[in-house]
């Protein structure tokens, strides 16, 4: 089995990251063996979390370079930290094979009205959307 074999899928199903010589899903599995992912990165973010539960943060409107998992609809919008969830490599680093550097991820709660406005007749004042976002994408609001 090729180390970059995307779970036996036909080659036309393979994504760019999987085809990259830098991507090594078996290496990720070796790191997580017996511990789990993201638990295997505990203590590897290089220090305590920068933010805490209750902090108001804005998602930076950074350019997309190849790949990320930060929802576009959250960019430029302020939310509240609900939980500091885990330490892990950021997906855009992972896609390039940089799996040894972890950072903190936060669960943020956004008011629906802040994301999409409040003119939707189905919107309720208490509607929220939550998203996990890595520290590099966040700044104080």
Can you walk me through this structure?
The chain is of the alpha+beta class. The protein has a domain at 45-140: SH3 type barrels (Roll), CATH 2.30.30.50. Helices cover 15% and strands 24% of the residues. The protein has four helices and five strands, in the order H-H-E-E-H-E-H-E-E. The protein has helices at residues 16-19, 25-32, 91-94, 112-116; strands at residues 56-59, 78-88, 103-111, 128-134, 138-140. A five-stranded antiparallel β-sheet has the order 4-3-2-1-5. The chain is elongated. The termini are far apart.
Please write out the topology.
Elements: H1 16-19, H2 25-32, E1 56-59, E2 78-88, H3 91-94, E3 103-111, H4 112-116, E4 128-134, E5 138-140
Helical content class: 10-25%
What's the total count of β strands? 5
Distance between the termini: 48 Å
Q: Enter the CATH topology name of the domain at 45-140.
A: SH3 type barrels
Computed CA radius of gyration, to the nearest angstrom:
18 Å
Number of helices: 4
Large-scale geometry: elongated
The stretches of 5 or more residues where confidence is low (pLDDT under 50) are 1-16
Enumerate the strands of the largest sheet in spatial order, edge to edge or round the barrel: 4-3-2-1-5
CATH architecture of the domain at 45-140: Roll
Reading off the top of the CATH hierarchy, the class of the domain at 45-140 is best stated as Mainly Beta
Report the biggest beta sheet as strand number plus sense, adding barrel if it closes: 5 strands, antiparallel
Which class do the helix and strand fractions yield? alpha+beta
Oligomer: single chain
Query: How much of the residues is beta strand, in percent?
Result: 15-25%
